[in-house]
Design brief:
Elements: H1 5-21, H2 25-32, H3 36-43, H4 50-59, H5 65-70, H6 78-110, E1 123-124, E2 127-128
Antiparallel strand pairs: 1-2
Helix pairs in contact: 1-6, 2-3
Amino acid sequence: MALSDNDNEIAQRIRLVRKLSGLDQQQFAKRIGIPYKSWNHYETGYPMRREVLVTLLRHVEGLSVDWLWFGRTGNMPAGLLKQLQQLERQEREERRKAERAASRQILIDTLPKVRRYGPTIKVTMGRRK
């Protein structure tokens, strides 16, 4: 089953919430009381169960369902919103850098291999061969 763009956007926002806490996936899942594997699935775009959403909202002060699901920021505290937007910019820049590096590597890999064996013309006893 392919994930929709909306599922991927939700996954990105969920990942931002976790990164804001400064914890890795395993630590964060333990902190909010869900299995690590489940949290990993949510960060990769699988739908989040309502019970998990409620648990997440209880553990992250100021977090909004509207922001998690739809990206709407209207009722979010300014401080939390600013931190999340800064993290989002950092992630975007990291993705751009990774994409540029991957593009360069593809280019390098597709260029013909040039080997240098020395001069292409041999000179033997004053004559060209």
